[in-house]
């Protein structure tokens, strides 16, 4: 028995993202294949084809960009079958797409994301994320695992620990440039072997991660969408960057995917711990 944690990043390019997010979704192995099949069927239902076929990839910045919303509001809501046909036309003949088909495509993208997050809830997926203010970047030491990774793995450890033996945690990353992948593998190796907390957590989390191509892996694409919504829409605590109001419905769906637990650290009351954390 195992839980896969599919991880991606959003905002690390330091362009215009309000927050940097390292995050993803955890799903139990027995649910993974059914979830993937339902997600792929959902693509057909919304777009009349696999949106992620060919060179396209299901990425938050592509399907939830402001332009998608502007296009979606360019026409009253289509009936599902008509919307599917027009969205398929826009995807299969991009050069020949007209305002009508682009409006249908925009509506299909928005509906797809909402239903995809509902699938995550149906299959009891959990969202994990470390959020960083780009104006206060984390200190970087190539020998040490970055703070946002440590906090995320800590929360994944608590999640696996709460589900008890024989569950194991398997971490799956979007493939990085090869030298960066080697650096991350080395950092995780040192963390799990040479730190007290790392050694404890290696009892339930397999220390060596898997790297996959995001355009070929449904779990990574879902993780990317979740990270994008968190960066652009979720706000709590001292997070004060403006949020995109049109993402509010998706944010509520993300909130219900969070995992909450408590731990006794010797204080008067147990400490409440959430799987999504703002590091400041």
Model description:
- The protein is an alpha/beta fold.
- The chain has a single domain (2-52, 113-278), classed as Nucleotidyltransferase, domain 5 (2-Layer Sandwich).
- Helices cover 47% and strands 16% of the residues.
- It contains ten helices and eight strands.
- It has helices at 29-47, 60-63, 66-72, 80-92, 99-122, 147-163, 178-194, 196-201, 218-233, 248-255; strands spanning 2-10, 20-28, 126-132, 168-174, 210-212, 260-263, 271-274, 276-278.
- The strands form two sheets. It has a six-stranded mixed beta sheet with strand order 5-4-1-2-3-8. Strands 6-7 form a two-stranded antiparallel sheet.
- β6 and β7 (271-274) form a beta hairpin.
- α1 (29-47) packs across α4 (80-92) and α9 crosses α10 (248-255).
- The two termini are 35 Å apart.
Here the CATH topology equals: Nucleotidyltransferase, domain 5
CATH C-level: Alpha Beta
The rounded distance between the terminal residues' Cα atoms is 35 Å
Topology pattern, helix = H, strand = E: EEHHHHHEHEHHEHHEEE
Tell me the total number of β-strands. Answer: 8
How much helical structure, as a percent, in the residues? 40-55%
Mean pLDDT score, rounded?
A: 94
User: What is the approximate shape?
Assistant: globular
Decide which structural class fits the backbone.
Answer: alpha/beta
Residue ranges: pLDDT <50 for 5 or more in a row? Answer: none
Sheet having the most strands: 6 strands, mixed
Could you say what the CATH architecture is? Answer: 2-Layer Sandwich
Number of spatially distinct domains: 1
Beta content: 15-25%
Number of helical segments?
10
Radius of gyration based on Cα positions: 19 Å
Strand order, main sheet: write it out: 5-4-1-2-3-8
């Amino acid at each position: 028995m195992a839980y896969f944690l599919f991880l991606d990043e959003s905002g690390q390019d330091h362009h215009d993202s309000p927050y940097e997010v390292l995050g993803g979704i955890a799903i139990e192995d027995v649910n993974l294949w059914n979830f993937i099949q339902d997600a792929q069927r959902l693509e057909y239902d919304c777009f009349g084809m696999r949106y992620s076929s060919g060179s396209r990839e299901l990425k938050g910045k592509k399907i939830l960009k402001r332009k998608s919303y502007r296009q979606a509001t360019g026409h009253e809501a289509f009936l599902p079958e008509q919307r599917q046909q027009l969205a398929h036309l826009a995807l299969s003949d991009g050069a020949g797409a007209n305002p009508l088909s682009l409006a249908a495509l925009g509506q299909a993208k928005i509906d797809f994301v909402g239903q995809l997050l509902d699938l995550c809830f149906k299959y009891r997926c959990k969202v994990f994320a470390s959020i960083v203010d780009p104006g206060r970047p984390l200190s970087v030491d190539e020998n040490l695992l970055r703070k946002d990774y440590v906090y995320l793995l800590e929360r994944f450890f608590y999640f696996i620990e709460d589900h008890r033996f024989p569950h194991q945690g398997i971490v799956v990353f979007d493939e990085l440039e090869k030298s960066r992948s080697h650096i991350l593998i080395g950092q995780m190796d040192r963390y799990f072997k040479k730190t007290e907390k790392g050694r404890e957590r290696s009892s339930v989390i397999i220390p060596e991660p898997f790297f996959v191509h995001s355009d070929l892996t449904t779990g990574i694409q879902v993780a990317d969408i979740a990270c994008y919504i968190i960066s652009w829409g979720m706000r709590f605590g001292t997070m004060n960057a403006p949020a995109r109001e049109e993402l509010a419905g998706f944010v509520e769906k993300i909130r219900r995917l969070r995992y909450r637990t408590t731990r006794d650290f010797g204080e008067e009351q147990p400490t409440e711990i959430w799987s999504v954390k703002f590091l400041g």
